[in-house]
Structures
1.
Amino acid sequence: MQDPICKMEVGVDARFRSSYKGKTFYFCSEACKQRFDKKPESFAKG
Ligand SMILES: [Zn+2]
């Protein structure tokens, strides 16, 4: 999986994750998750 914010590779066991439109996104850190949660529509492509 790839962190949509910073493009870092993260495992499916990543602690930080969000669901958006039925998809689950994984993040390397709380900071990346918070950025996603503010504006998911600008990161959740594809
Ligand atoms: Zn990240």
Note: The mean pLDDT is 94.
2.
Amino acid sequence: MVDGKTSGVYNTNQNERTVIVKQLTKNFEVIEKEKGLTGSIRSLFSPAKKTVKALKNISFNIAKGELIGFIGPNGAGKTTALKVLSGLLYPTSGFVQVINFQPWEKKREYLKKISMVMGQKTQLWWDLPAIDTFELNQKIYEIPDTEYEKNLKELIDLLEVGSILKRQVRTLSLGQRMRLELVAALLHRPEVLFLDEPTIGLDVVAQQRMRDFIYEYNRRHKATIILTSHNMDDVVNLTRRVIVIDNGEIFFDGPLRKLVTDYVKEKTITVNLSGQTDIKDFETIGQVKKVKFPEVVLVVPRETAAVASAEILQSFPVSDLTVEEEKLESIIQRVFRRSE
Ligand SMILES: Nc1ncnc2c1ncn2[C@@H]1O[C@H](COP(=O)(O)OP(=O)(O)O)[C@@H](O)[C@H]1O
Ligand SMILES: [Mg+2]
């Protein structure tokens, strides 16, 4: 689980709020096509409109320097939330402020302070080497030469991309390209970074590399980072606080640890027996899930797991005993299934 070493929160100042969101709602109007040919024709003349409620009245704050994860099933509203925060979408209603700006006004000073990286989109020019995009970004963001050189060098070192800067982007692997995307997004040293599924499609080695980098960038520059991910490894390894979004609503906002204590009511004890015993006796201790000599698996309430373990060790011939907690991935899946 998350501990001091791997937690992504670096020296946050709770008084300094970088993101304030109050009662944010975002609806999309979509046209529903009716079935069949006559339906298609009818839709053409009197289209049936439907409102998709992507975000329903959500509120949260994020402190400067926080590294926070938005998690939730597909279609929950995570990308929509990031798009509103980064100024790509207007909200339908509600209050949004990021570093004292209203994102959708897209003020130059605002755009110079933020960056958005989407795992499935690219800002690099495919037919050119990445270094050309970087130089273009230097001009767009008006980065002074000395700063540009310094930032570029730091990013090249951190992301180990020195050898691929001059290669045509389309010839690179996804992992290589994603690292270059990050360089492009961070050259202007944004204070706030929005990462939408930054590890999607990457192999495990590339995922870990990406996570190491995000963690280090947050630590080094006290950047506020909001990431969305399907990948529980990202969440467990990087973020201490998570906002769980489900169906446009905030389902949970708090420390990852609390999500576990709130939703995990049981622990699993696996016992390895060193001799024959009456299995029935285990039923007085917990719910017996599996018996396959010499292994017995039982489930006990979370709070009594320690007492139950002690009792087992005393009353049975035991060669080994392990106590396990449900994995975060499975907790979250269970939580989501519950709300379906
Ligand atoms: N441009 C759009 N037009 C219509 N509906 C959209 C648009 N973008 C997103 N949606 C809908 O809004 C909901 C939230 O989508 P999204 O924010 O992409 O979810 P997530 O990123 O959590 O998977 C979904 O029902 C999706 O279909
Ligand atoms: Mg998304």
Note: Residues 204-221 form the longest helix (18 residues).
